[in-house]
Design a protein that fits this description.
Length: 363
């Protein structure tokens, strides 16, 4: 159990700034998930915490102790961390219990055996202690790897895509397991994943990264509902950003004009150009008034009919998805109302790119 502190942490690989001045305070006992597009720096940050790599600048502290900085570097083995990778790295010639005991040689035998027993019980594998890794399923091997890390009672547990090799059902089961173990141990956990749903389901805090920067650090719901930047809005939960005009703003609410209609939504934008950040749940089919649109296509997904719509009065928007109870034929006409969204400031920028369907897309 230890807090993590990053102070202007940077790491460069040639031309690539893999970490670009990352600063954050992660309270002890947090379950932190790092999210972001491929190459944004998640693994680089995890490796810095682990001590597998040195920063070029800035400081990193674990439990209030500086472990990396201009004049200090604590090696991985002295940081009190556990790591679980997507490759479980178990010794094939050792039993489950021996694999878990492997890193505990410094302890007296009775203490070692007690730790192994406790760790096996925590991950629900007590009955399989004598088996070899090849006699286990993928999920069971993952549990052994987790038990091995837990047995050392780490201050911080680092999980690098730990579920990547498991099928969907096992992933869900292991996620629940991580959450339970986190609650039981109070261990600070840092979880790197490509899967947003996974991150949202388990984490107390989500760190969204982009091009080496920490764009937002906040609880899952806040990242979803109050994105700190257009990048976060687009990256999380199939979010979209629509160019709007902010007519007025006060007390955390913005009056916006969209497609000739005005509405008031939460946001941080001053009057002028804005981005309206929306998720599919923010759009609803309306029988009365709303923005007129045409159905481009409709498909069945996750129990919904998802219609892709082109809006008459939003020429700068390529198409937006709308959840419907019933299928809507291509070319049919609908009206759509906004049920939510968040408004961010928009800097006047760059020429707009052409989308594949020939409509302009917001930059
Ligand atoms: N050892 C290295 N040498 C050169 N470039 C590196 C090295 N390690 C990472 N990079 C670069 O640094 C950037 C960040 O990489 P990193 O592995 O941290 O990204 P990531 O967010 O974990 O990506 P992914 O989701 O694809 O695993 C990338 O552009 C990557 O190519």
């Amino acid at each position: 159990m230890a807090a993590l502190s990053f102070e202007n942490l940077s790491r460069r690989f040639g031309e690539t700034l893999a970490l670009d001045g990352v600063s954050a305070e992660i309270p002890s006992g947090t379950f932190l998930a790092l999210l972001g597009p491929s190459g944004c720096g998640k693994t680089t940050l995890l490796r810095q915490i682990a001590g597998l790599d040195r920063p070029d600048g800035g400081r990193l502290s674990i439990g209030g102790q500086e472990v990396a900085g201009p004049s200090c570097f604590t090696p991985p083995e002295a940081r009190g961390l556990g790591m679980v990778f997507q490759s479980y790295a178990l010794w094939p010639h050792m039993s489950v219990a021996e694999n878990i005991a492997f890193g505990l040689n410094r302890l007296a035998k009775p203490e070692r055996l007690a730790r192994v027993e406790e760790a096996l019980a925590k991950v629900g594998l007590a009955a399989l202690a004598g088996r070899r890794p090849h006699q286990l399923s993928g999920g069971q091997r993952q549990r052994v790897a987790l038990a091995r890390s837990l047995a050392a009672r780490p201050r911080v547990l680092l999980l690098d895509e730990p579920l990547a090799n498991l099928d969907a059902h096992l992933r869900a089961a292991m996620l629940a397991e991580f959450r339970r173990i986190h609650a039981e141990t109070g261990c600070t956990m840092v979880f790197v994943t490509h899967d947003q749903n996974e991150a949202m389901a388990v984490a107390d805090l989500i760190g969204v990264m982009d091009r080496g920067r920490l764009e937002q650090l906040a609880p899952p719901q806040e990242v979803f509902e109050r994105p700190a930047s257009p990048m976060v809005a687009r990256f999380v939960g199939q979010g979209r950003t629509l160019p709007v005009t902010v007519v007025s703003a006060a007390a955390g609410r913005c009056r916006i004009r969209l497609g000739g209609q005005e509405t008031t939504l939460p946001g941080t934008a001053p009057p002028g150009p804005g981005w309206l950040c929306v998720h599919p749940r923010d759009l609803a089919h309306s029988r009365a008034m709303g923005l007129p649109a045409t159905v481009l296509e409709c498909r069945f997904e996750d129990g919904w009919h998802i219609a892709q719509l082109i809006f008459d009065d939003l020429p700068d928007v390529a198409s937006l998805p709308l959840r419907l109870d019933r299928a809507a034929p291509r070319g049919s006409r609908l009206k759509v109302v906004l049920r939510g969204g968040f408004v961010l400031p928009r800097a006047e920028v760059a020429p707009k790119a052409l989308s594949p369907v020939g409509r302009t897309v917001p930059a």
